[in-house]
Amino acid sequence: MALADAAGGAVDVAIMDVNLARGSNGVETAGLRQRWDIPSLFVSGNLDEGIRSRAMQYRPVGFIGKPYSEREILMAIRALAN
Q1: Burial, 70: exposed, middle or buried (Cβ in 10 Å; 0-12, 13-18, 19+)?
Q2: How confident is residue 77, by pLDDT bands cut at 50, 70 and 90?
Q3: Angle at 71 between CA 9 and CA 48, to 5 degrees
Q4: Using CA atoms, how far apart are residues 2 and 19, in angstroms rounded to an integer?
Q5: From edge to edge, which strands make up the β-sheet containing 40-44?
Q6: Per residue in 24-75, pLDDT tens?
Q7: pTM flag (> 0.85)
Q8: Which among 3, 52, 58, 80 could disulfide-bond with 30, CB atoms 3.0 to 4.6 Å apart, if both were Cys?
């Protein structure tokens, strides 16, 4: 959030881990979409239906399970340009 604020929202996409350190939640942090209209790509080793459902309110670019490859990330980001 601080990086997006410092950049004045000039961020193309936020790659968000669903479970962050110290109990934070990447889904909640996806409020970047609301403040700056920055799309989120969610990654997690545990993408259950509850998490997906909560995340949908932020209109994510997509969901990628861990472990993921560079190719998967790049494909999801390229989808933004289309």
Answers
A1: exposed
A2: confident
A3: 75
A4: 18
A5: 14-17, 40-44, 62-65
A6: 667 777 676 777 888 888 888 887 888 888 888 888 888 998 899 999 999 9
A7: no
A8: 58
Enter the tokens of residue 62.
């997509």
Residue 10 token pair? 């000039």
Residue with tokens 């989120």, as numbered in its chain: 40
For 41, list phi and psi in degrees, rounded to 5. -115, 120
Tokens of residue 48, six digits = 């259950």
**Tokens matching residue 22:** 């110290």
Residue 25 structure tokens:
């939640």
Go through the chain and tell me how many residues it has.
82
Residue 18 and residue 22: Cα distance in Å, rounded?
A: 12
